[in-house]
Amino acid sequence: MKLYRKRSERRPWEENESEGAVPWLFVLPSLLAVTVLVLLPFIDVVRRSFFSAMSGQFVGFKNYLTVFQNDAFRLAAGNTAKFVAVCIPLLLVFSLLLALLVNAFREKRGVFKTSFLIPMAIPVASIVLLWKVVFHENGLFNIFLGWLGAAPVDWLDSELTFAVLVFSYLWKNTGYDMILWLSGITAISPALYESAQIDGAGALQRFFRITLPGLMPTLFTITVLSLLNSFKVFREAYLIGGNYPNTSIYMLQHLFNNWFADLDVDKMCAGAVLMALVVFLLIMLLQRFWGREAQNE
Amino acid sequence: MAVSETSVGLTIEKVNKWYSADSHAVRDMDLTVENGEFMIFVGPSGCGKSTLLRMIAGLETVNGGTIRMGERVINKVPPKERDIAMVFQNYALYPTMNVYNNMAFPLKMRRWKKEDIHRRVTEVAANLGLTEYLKRRPGALSGGQRQRVALGRAMVRQPRLFLMDEPLSNLDAKLRVDMRREIVDLQRRLGTTTIYVTHDQTEAMTMGTRIAVMKDGVLQQVDAPRTVYEKPANLFVAKFIGSPPMNTWEGEHRGRRCIVGIRPEYITPADASDPGALRARVSGVENTGRESMVYLEAEGLPGLVMAADAAFRCGPGEAVGIRMDQEKFLFFDRETELRID
Predict the structure, then answer these.
(1) Strand arrangement of the beta sheet that strand B218-223 belongs to
(2) B19, B88, B96: best to mutate for the A interface, most A CBs within 10 A
(3) Is B90 within 8 Å of chain A by CB?
(4) Taking CB atoms and an 8 Å limit, are A198 and B84 in contact across chains?
(5) Are B89 and B203 in contact, with CB atoms under 8 Å apart?
(6) Is A107 near chain B, with CB under 8 Å?
(7) H helices of chain B, where?
(8) How big is chain A by its Cα radius of gyration, in Å?
């Protein structure tokens, strides 16, 4: 859509000169907020990433080099990448299966939709308390494992803490993603399934040839949203392990937090720019992939 | 008429369908569709014609009675094993596949070899004038082209039965007339038993070898279009088939009170001097160029419609003389509404 047309292109009946400004007027409030709260600070962050925080001198890419050589950064970036790589496929598949299951219920669908959304509404702080009760070394989960004859595990401070974090993320986001999948599923015309049935397609063929291709646009939205949500899991990680949790869940945000506390603003800015770049590239890549997908078929 | 080798006839016996206790969509339906026949199901919305078609397709369960394809009872046979092809009202083309893949889909599902699929799809596409669109997706096609793709997808296989659920209702008037002829030609060439659902009585009259008129889930009459038109089984059929509908009023026949009906084309203008002429006042005229529909008011009769020659000139408010062809009167029982011979 073209928001603005040159004067010469205007039709004679379009007398109103201010018409071109109207769309901008609608965008203005949110544009203003985004500019003041996100864009300008981010530009400042980019600027700071090239200066020394102590002396205020221009240092070129030195901050970036320091960040790359920093063990804590490597650990945090690695953990974050691992978390994203493990969680998103799991979440996508799990929530899709759940959505298909809920979709199969015709009458009680509403009840399921709401109940699976409840985790979204519970504040992180209170749910982490529950996780502590469940996953503590003397907690409920270990008692349960004890009945099965297994030795207790320190879920909250060991290599396995990563699993707890993954679980926590899945628990919180599955319902939300399921709703997104459901909206995609209901958008597929039922006549397509009937037609496919008559054309000789079985249940699996209908799923792979109609449902899945029909859900491709939804998949893009869900992947991007889940990717962005996965960075929010810091709250759980922080509440479980504090500033310096088990190394398996030491996330980028822990690092930023600690750099901030240590006034390492220059390193923090460089790290933030890097992260923003990676996320931006990831989303662009996804979009390209989907754009091609849409043309190919 | 050549009958396709794969085609079969269809027997429907005492078929019933309930959606809920108080919604009886199809009642005690008895109908035989001959092998190779072009059968039309026609009736107003909600008469059960689509439900019946969907039961034949296997998309709805049958609550009572049997449906047989050839000799085989198919009540519980899943749609994919019935070997039928269906054209849907909204075409139901697969939006993520291009035209080629849409048409190839039924063949792929039946594990045809790739080269056979290619040969068959290109052949059918050429037949329907779709060759240049094979790479396009349905979203990039016009309504008429989508309609053709839907037909093509049904035709690639030689099914035992074609089912069409109001396939022309989404097309504009001119295209509808063209496609009507094309479908009739196609059916005649292929010789496959076809069941065609429509609410359009022109399609019903012009396309089928026989038409089945339905109302409230009950079959009213099955016969050749001309017979249904000339000898409607009851008042409903008389008024539903034919446009504008038959004129009816309460009258007398052989000393018995009944409903009298006459088709608009059997009312003709008459001179005032004609002794048998009836005096009427014109209340409106619709001239289509080919003929004139004249709406009349005559004493003792409800509003009448006369289909007169386009050359017949008159205006609202004018008094005219009309003549009814008594030979063409039809009489219906007042209680049962059945036609009296």
Answers:
(1) B84-87, B161-165, B194-198, B38-42, B210-215, B218-223
(2) B96
(3) yes
(4) yes
(5) no
(6) no
(7) 49-57, 99-109, 114-127, 143-155, 173-190, 201-207, 225-230, 235-240
(8) 25
Q: Which residues of A touch B99 (CB under 8 A)?
A: none
Q: Is the minimum CB–CB distance between B77 and chain A shorter than 8 Å?
A: no
Q: A198 at the B interface (CB within 8 A)? A: yes
Cis upstream peptide for B244 (omega within 30°): yes
- SS3 string, B245-278, reads CCEEEEEEECCEEEEEEECHHHEEEECCCCCCCE
Fold of A63-296: MetI-like fold (1.10.3720)
What 3-state DSSP class applies to A140? helix
In 3-state terms chain A splits into helix, strand, coil percentages (rounded to 5) of: 75, 0, 25
Tokens of residue A108, six digits: 């009680």
First and final C-alpha spacing in chain B: 33
A290 part of contact set with chain B, CB < 8 Å: no
* Beta carbons within 8 Å of A63's beta carbon, 6+ residues apart: A49, A50, A52, A266, A267, A269, A270
Q: Are B328 and B238 in contact (CB under 8 A)?
A: no
Looking at the complex, report in whole angstroms how far the Cα of residue B167 sits from the nearest Cα belonging to chain A.
Answer: 13
Q: Where are the domains of chain A?
A: 1-48, 63-296
pLDDT, chain A, mean: 85
- Interchain CB contact of B109 with A (< 8 Å): yes
Spatial contact of B95 and B137, defined as CB atoms under 8 Å apart:
yes
Structure tokens belonging to residue A224:
């991007």
What is residue A18's predicted lDDT score, i.e. its pLDDT?
Answer: 62
Which residues in B lie closer than 8 A to residue A197 (C-beta atoms)?
58-59, 78-80
Q: Across the beta sheet with B319-324, what order do the strands follow?
A: B267-270, B319-324, B278-287, B291-298, B304-309
Check: CB of residue B231 under 8 Å from CB of residue B241.
no
Across the interface, of A192, A197, A209, the residue whose CB is closest to B79 is A197
Domains of chain B: 10-239 (3.40.50.300), 244-340 (2.40.50.140)
List the structure tokens of B61: 């369960």
- pLDDT confidence band for A1 (50 / 70 / 90): very low
Let me know: does A216 contact A293? Beta carbons within 8 Å. yes
- Alpha-carbon gap, residue B144 to B175, rounded angstroms: 7
What gap in Å lies between CA B161 and CA B179, rounded to an integer? Answer: 20
List pLDDT tens digits, range B136-168: 999 999 988 999 999 999 989 889 999 999 999
Contact flag B88-A197 (C-beta cutoff 8 Å):
no
Distance from CA of B223 to the nearest CA of A (A): 29
Q: pLDDT band for position B43 (50/70/90)?
A: very high
Question: What angle (nearest 5°) sits at the alpha carbon of residue A31, between those of residues A25 and A35?
Answer: 145
Per-residue model confidence as pLDDT tens digits over B54-73: 999 999 999 999 999 988 99
